[in-house]
């Protein structure tokens, strides 16, 4: 009897010591994540267009369902998805190109006003006791040369996006065709639970962009009418900027406010700039801070902290487009790594999603 106890104790010991300690597993997971995201960063010029194409195809994919229900051939439904995806890309590209061209053309007309405003800002900061370095650094933001350089960088960015646009167009064709092929399979991702997670992800991405596009259009119209009424130059450009930056969670409002506020300062002084800031705050805070987050939360179940961190993280990993794609990319990571794992209940809840599977 005593020998059996010893044997059992001996056999239990290796079981207790088997496997890595929890801390070691965490460190290995973090190290693997760093290596993986470093690889994404190195391949960002290829992966960023692919991510854009994937999101556009996800948004356009439901177009095929009513066509197939009416008995249309699958290749016609796939072509319809591609056409809708191309229309989305064409509208966005036209808006960005128009806004960039208008902004670049505006700067020479206000060179003198920019210089006068820069000098006034420098004098004001100096009178407030700020150091010359701080005064010069702040006023240099309004220097025509700085803004022309910024405009040139915007133009270069647009040119780079146009170059990547070709790859996006090609990716859309291939992804739309593959989506049609996968739709005919009984189980796309291996089992019913994985398919549920996939459907939840695709549906969440579509709902997220529908909500953002809707609120972005409302904010753009209101901001554009406001700036037009105040006499701010090229209000349509700032309305387009408000629409685009609405897709950047949390900080999009600030990004869309700075250019028209600076221009208001140049053409009308501090009173007009304060009016623009206050009016923007009333419109955008009411819609984007008080109303929109409720709809976004219902669409994607992401915590505000994770949403904000996602913008910074994905912008660093794949560039500026990462700020717009931050929510879909974060949802993808959660769908791949967190939702299938029953042991990741804590991570799932911290991310803002208490649901245990992909079905919603």
Automatic annotation (TrEMBL):
UniProt keyword annotations, A-Z: Cell membrane, Membrane, Transmembrane, Transmembrane helix, Transport
Identify the Pfam families for this entry. Answer: AI-2E_transport
How does the entry describe its membrane topology? Multi-pass membrane protein
Instruction: List where the protein spans the membrane.
Output: 20-40, 46-63, 75-99, 147-174, 209-230, 236-258, 270-291, 311-333
| Chief location bin | membrane
- Subcellular location field: Cell membrane
Indicate whether Membrane appears among the record's keywords.
Answer: yes
Question: What's the name of the protein?
Answer: AI-2E family transporter
Q: Which species is this record about?
A: Agromyces humatus
